[in-house]
Design goal:
Structural class: mainly alpha
Oligomer: single chain
Number of helices: 2
Number of domains: 1
Radius of gyration: 14 Å
Strand content: under 5%
Largest sheet: none
Amino acid sequence: MGNENELNNASQTIIDMLVGKTLQKHEVKLDSAKLDEKTKAELRKLVGQLEKDVQSLAKKSEEE
């Protein structure tokens, strides 16, 4: 179980780093007050899907 938590933490860290570097590369400055609720919901949905994809990939890797 600890291994799964470590994998989740590592996955989240990687996602955070990739998003952060991508935003930095394109000189995007986020101001959460400027994001409307629709955009926030879309971002949450996207992050949720990315997390599911990473977990699925990790599960497939474990099975092989």
